[in-house]
Specification:
disordered C terminus; 32% helix; Rossmann fold; alpha/beta; six-stranded mixed β-sheet; 11 helices
Length: 312
């Protein structure tokens, strides 16, 4: 069975601001039908990466191809395949929704004869059917966000890049925007940049986590969830040994001392093996239990370091 075509390919993408490297050698691919969650804490480098993928910011090093077109060598052909919603939607509040979408369609070189049909299709997909004559300034935050997404898809691009599309929305608006993103993912390649984990869980097929400008995780959502639910063991010992003795047990990859004879053990662990070793060594086994990490805990583990500095 043939895989869907690769629509976005980033190769060793980097961006430097003066002496600070905000994004460091990021590489990945996105295929048609994928919704990629680009996850990271504030300041991790998400928006910088999104701007480079959309052609709004030139990389300091590396290469981006969109539908096989190099973004630097063939910018017009590449950008014609991209719809981009920045973190702050690029709206003209004094225009009506119809006027603004017609303007955006012309910017994207939609033929004049096809402009009306393109505008109406984008409005329909974004739930703006009754809003055409409304001035954008009079719309709620949620509807303005819908207009921002509509301008990104008015030219039916193969690739849709959404940077923090639900920031500042109420729970009902967030749910509606997520449903729209999921619908877009059936026909396009979608990249959703966010720092909100439930956002990724609800609409994405794949996950990438960026931290201080570097990718620290890249896999399917199922693999991310599987890694999060992998067990760790909490053990309490009356005669606590040196942590090195615990680290030497089969399957133990890391030992974290919690005080008062308690330890957290991580790795490919087998509870009966740990219990048997504790009894045989005379460590006085008091308690042994399984601890399961949430997705949030795994995210924190992957994005917590003691390094100084911050990416854009």
């Amino acid at each position: 069975m043939n895989q869907p075509e690769v629509l976005i390919k980033a190769e060793r993408l980097s961006r430097r601001y003066g002496t600070r490297l905000a994004v460091r050698e990021v590489s990945f691919e996105v295929r048609r039908g994928q919704v990629l969650g680009f996850l990271g804490p504030n300041g991790a480098g998400k928006s910088t990466t999104m701007q480079m993928l959309a052609g709004a910011l030139a990389p300091s090093a590396g290469r981006v191809t969109i539908g096989g077109h190099d973004l630097l060598d063939e910018p017009e052909a590449a950008k014609a395949l991209v719809g981009f919603l920045p973190e702050l939607p690029p709206l003209y509040p004094e225009l009506t929704v119809d006027e603004f979408l017609d303007f955006c369609a012309r910017l994207h070189r939609v033929p004049r004869a096809a402009t009306r049909a393109a505008r109406e299709a984008a409005k329909s997909r974004c739930g703006l059917g009754e809003m055409g004559r409304r001035t954008i300034a009079t719309l709620s935050k949620g509807f303005q966000q819908r207009v921002g997404i509509a301008q990104a898809i008015v030219h039916s691009p193969a690739v849709v890049i959404l940077d923090e599309p639900t920031v500042g929305l109420d729970p009902i608006q967030i749910r509606e925007i997520r449903a729209l993103i999921a619908e877009l993912g059936r026909e396009h390649a979608v990249i959703l940049s966010t720092h909100i984990l439930p956002e990724v869980q609800s609409v994405c097929s794949d996950v990438q986590i960026i931290h201080r400008g570097e990718l620290v995780f890249a896999d399917s959502l199922a693999a991310f969830a599987g890694r999060a639910t992998g067990a760790t063991l909490l053990v309490e010992l009356r005669a606590a040994p040196d942590p090195a003795a615990l680290a030497a047990l089969p399957g133990v990859a890391a030992v974290e001392g919690l005080g008062a004879g308690r330890f957290r053990l991580r790795g490919a662990l087998d509870a009966p093996t740990v219990a048997g070793a504790a009894v045989a060594a005379g460590w006085g086994l008091v308690e042994l239990g399984v601890e399961r990490r949430s997705l949030e805990q795994l995210f924190v583990e992957l994005t917590t370091t003691d390094d100084a500095g911050e990416a854009a």
